[in-house]
Amino acid sequence: MRAEGIMKQDKTNNKSDLQQLEKIKMEVRKAEEEQVVDHTPVEEGPKISLPGIYSSNDGNMIMGISGMNYSAQLGMSTIDELLARDRRREKDGFPRKIKVGKLFRPGKSVGDSVIIVPTTVEEKFLHDTISGSQEEQAGGSGSGEEGEVIGEQPIRPQQGEGNGAGGEGQDSNHEMESGAYDLGRILTEQFELPNLKDRGTKRALTKYTYDITDKNRGFGQVLDKKATLRKVIETNIGLGRLEDVSNIDTTGFLVSPRDRIYRVLSREKDYESQAMVFFVRDYSGSMAGKCTELVVAQHVLIYSWLLYQYAKRVETRFIVHDTEAKEVPDFYTYYNSKVAGGTQVSAAYSLVNEIVENESLANEYNIFIFHGTDGDDWDTIGEKALPELRKILTYASRVGITIAEHAYSAGQKTEVEKYIADSGMLNEYADYLRMDVIQESADESRLIEGIRKLISHEVMK
Amino acid sequence: MELVDQKTKSIMEGCKERAYDAGLSFDNQTLEYIVTNRDLIELTPKYMIPTLYDYWVHDVEVLKEKGRYELYPNNPYETVVNTRPAISFYNDNNPDWMNVMIFYHVLAHIDFFQNNYSFQNTWDYDFTGQALSDKRTISKLRSEKGHWVDYVIEFARSIDNMADYYSELSKFDGVTPGHRNNMLDYYFDIFLQKEKCVPMTEYVKEVERYNKCKKETTELGEQTFFADVNIKYPEFSSMFERYASNPRDEKLDLLQYIMEKSEFLNKHSNVWMKSVIEIVRKTSLFFQPQIRTKIMNEGWASYWHEKLFLSDDRIIGHESDFARLHAGIASMPRVGLNPYALGIRIFHYIEELGDTGKNTRAFDMLTGVKDRNKYDQKLNNGNELIFEVRKALSDYLFIENYIDQDFVNKHNLFIAGKRINQERMVWEYYVKSKKASDYKKMLQDQLYHPPSITVDAERHSNNILYLDHKFEGKPLVNEYISNVMLGLEYLWGGPVQLETSEVEKNNSGAGRFGRRPENEENRETQWQRVLYTMKDKKLSRKVLG
Description:
The complex is a heterodimer.
Chain A: H1 2-34, H2 58-63, H3 72-91, E1 99-103, E2 116-120, E3 137-141, E4 149-154, H4 174-190, E5 206-217, E6 222-223, H5 225-238, E7 261-271, E8 275-282, H6 290-309, E9 314-321, E10 325-328, H7 331-336, H8 345-358, E11 366-373, H9 385-392, E12 398-405, H10 415-423, H11 425-428, E13 433-439, H12 444-455
Chain B: E1 2-3, H1 6-22, E2 30-35, H2 37-43, E3 61-62, E4 80-81, E5 86-91, H3 96-115, H4 127-145, H5 148-157, H6 165-170, H7 183-195, H8 200-216, H9 221-232, H10 236-244, H11 254-261, H12 271-292, H13 294-310, H14 319-330, H15 339-356, H16 361-365, H17 369-374, H18 382-392, H19 395-402, H20 405-410, E6 413-421, E7 426-433, H21 436-446, E8 453-455, E9 465-469, H22 478-492, E10 496-503, H23 518-521, E11 527-535, E12 538-543
Parallel strand pairs in B: 2-5, 9-10
Antiparallel strand pairs in B: 1-2, 4-5, 6-7, 8-9, 10-11, 11-12
């Protein structure tokens, strides 16, 4: 009888546990949304601060005004001013204060923009928590006896959780390009990322293509709906018919015939791309979570910077590998692919060599290869990977290897790091090969530091 | 941003009548504005005070780590600002019934601002006018001095949480800081400790002897006590006289100290900086009471909006809307904290204590569970008691005095812990403790509590500013130290030293997933005193023996 009772209780517990788990997850997610940046001590794993006393206020509790409605776009408008201020600080003998904040990750729809948000910290004397001294605790309410588990949350963020960054590649539209281009400009100017030197002389070929790209007001071959709508809005702003930007009522718009914008056939100069960038990423099981986020975020930054460097004449190829390598069509797939296999770095390098050879890219382009991995490799001494890498170095303008170390392997060199360092190639090909090892807890500014290391002229020790 | 229309205003005037009848007391003059989300973007960084000074950091999204500490001395999305007249804000798409409810909430906030002793320093002037003149001062200086004004603001703001709020507040208690005619205080605080440096045991003995004297001969207890003191230390009375006739300056907080003593700031060409620092300090002091009474203030406002709106005929037809909104405000989260929900529960609990007489000694003496549950003296003092509490307490004492085991049991409160489960690779949230003492401690750990950092004038030599961080079991946020001290060095015009405590680094290192070696679980954290020195814009660190 008694045993049965316990069994029953267990079942109900499980069921309510599940509901509570969902509830807690939601609250945790809410807390995460409110959070901006996470200065987690490495060994603690991802830290989530639950809503505390000071995070709720009349705005969000009563009127449903959520957080600072501070759009990143708005920050962009003043960014030049802020950067100028920051440069002046340096002249005045004070350290810079503005850091790169969040990057916006693409949603499910293609065409989300990549945006950089300037952030800063107001430093004060404040109490800190002692890292790792005790487990986190928070208030709670409801049923439950001491020791009872009321919910759980996976250690490794599920797909679609976490705050990674990304973008798209070839299929991307103009919006993404311009966002990334701006980002590249800021990276170059603000973070003084060096300009890359071309390897040899690559000629930029020009050819003419015919396309309907010219715009014409009033008549033409194809109505450009987006430009037309822009014009209509402009007109209506001019007429004072659009008062509240956050609440646009399009039914009240007036449309003048001159607002219609058409595309007409025209002769265009078309430049060949000058840079070919291979983004190579380890997507084996061990990369899940933070490592992937770091690598991809850094690749977005690199892509943006190259876009600016080469005045948008950049082509990208994406390669993911576990024990085998394959090419994927765009950044989105590149970002979101996941398998649970082992790791064989050589597979990726040989695929790069294959592509370059088959398409004879080496003569046409400046080739950049950026490889992100957590440093695991079944080929522990690089027996296969090193010869392939050596081959790559005969034509590449720059190979940048980022190793995102797991928190638990801190202090020990990973396999990839070890065999590359031991091979002596870092010195031999100092101009073309760079390696950067980052911790799992790295933030954006550390990533940018890493990029500088990967692409600078000088060899940084 | 515009004022509410006449119709809404007349509804609100009706609310005021009802609130007065319920016992709330506040100025009859109030200003209500309708705001759009766009207005909020501009108002938020300025703590909703349109006339507050401009500062460039407001143009940047500021990184704040919510939950660990709050950088701001207040809450930027408050619906009401403690000015004269009080200004409150209503979203432009609120329905009327909701505005009525919010207005009750606002009135209770205003009542709190104007009656709670923590706000005494804000009672006799209007901050809006003050802020406006400050803003003008700063923009005038900007036009003369350029961007250096912003540096001074930045450096002053980096220590604005060091403004000594409590000593400002104590001025209102008729206790002038540094009053020096009390023989008893002198004997115990200065004579025994600083002059004679007696060991702790003897000090305690003296305290006991004093208590004994007071007990045995109430009238002449103190005289008896000092008669013995004079026999033991013949020099005592003459030393006390010398001390009492030599009034010293009142205690200065860090900002005041720098303004008064810094040679750099007192140069003729730099005196303007002092007015900027004073503005920053005043602004900080104005907002401090808000963060120190967050739970009470929100609890009080929620208590009254519920009570007054339920008895208001304008709720008719919106009962379920109100229920939904109110539930969102006043429900306890399964994990996490909601100051509104906690505050309103504590106020209801206090009311119940007053009504039944459970806040008496007689009740405390009862041990039987049944007797305790049945206890009811029908005193009906609850209403009086909550008004008393609203007047006299701040968050710390509110929690300390009124969260007890009965309260924790009543509302099923517990501490939720978070631990790792290696087998399942998940973080588990579990019920860690249901003890009131633990719950209280968890709350008090979260309360706003800036570190206590004072100038040690005795170690002040060669124009070095020596700061002493009083150890309270927590280190300072390390990555901020350098920049704060850099600013201090600039304002001070000389090297700055900071003595603080840090956790001793041990090289054992954490294992995978933060699991520590077994023996380390129970090991005490080792603390050491560390001296940071900022000289010529370079920071050095030295471990003190």
